[in-house]
């Protein structure tokens, strides 16, 4: 059964726009297609603004807040429930973080990665390490 409903307190990932890749929390529902989201800015860097639901990917995590809660109330609720820590532990969050790290690599970082991969492959072919399967 589907459980990721659009509701106040639902943690979401912004997928499009200037805040793409950042986490936010649904604070209020405007209509069928739009919601008011807030980071809070001190935690995730997202200011309170209205956003179409299409630009959000809802997560499984919620915090208990009232509709239209203040930023301070939201921040305290997120800390109390440990929502951001739970999110950081998920495979989805780790994948997003890895993608961000790869996109911010410099040319020299990519070169070092290539050299390390070659070294690892040579070590495996030589028989020094056992090949691990996923």
From TrEMBL:
<dbReference type="Pfam" id="PF01929">
    <property type="entry name" value="Ribosomal_L14e"/>
</dbReference>
<comment type="similarity">
    <text>Belongs to the eukaryotic ribosomal protein eL14 family.</text>
</comment>
<protein>
    <recommendedName>
        <fullName>Large ribosomal subunit protein eL14 domain-containing protein</fullName>
    </recommendedName>
</protein>
<dbReference type="GO" id="GO:0009507">
    <property type="term" value="C:chloroplast"/>
</dbReference>
<feature type="domain" description="Large ribosomal subunit protein eL14">
    <location>
        <begin position="48"/>
        <end position="120"/>
    </location>
</feature>
<keyword id="KW-0934">Plastid</keyword>
<dbReference type="GO" id="GO:0006412">
    <property type="term" value="P:translation"/>
</dbReference>
<dbReference type="InterPro" id="IPR008991">
    <property type="entry name" value="Translation_prot_SH3-like_sf"/>
</dbReference>
<keyword id="KW-0150">Chloroplast</keyword>
<dbReference type="GO" id="GO:0003735">
    <property type="term" value="F:structural constituent of ribosome"/>
</dbReference>
<dbReference type="GO" id="GO:0022625">
    <property type="term" value="C:cytosolic large ribosomal subunit"/>
</dbReference>
<dbReference type="InterPro" id="IPR039660">
    <property type="entry name" value="Ribosomal_eL14"/>
</dbReference>
<dbReference type="InterPro" id="IPR002784">
    <property type="entry name" value="Ribosomal_eL14_dom"/>
</dbReference>
<dbReference type="GO" id="GO:0042273">
    <property type="term" value="P:ribosomal large subunit biogenesis"/>
</dbReference>
<dbReference type="GO" id="GO:0003723">
    <property type="term" value="F:RNA binding"/>
</dbReference>
<keyword id="KW-0689">Ribosomal protein</keyword>
<dbReference type="InterPro" id="IPR014722">
    <property type="entry name" value="Rib_uL2_dom2"/>
</dbReference>
<keyword id="KW-0687">Ribonucleoprotein</keyword>
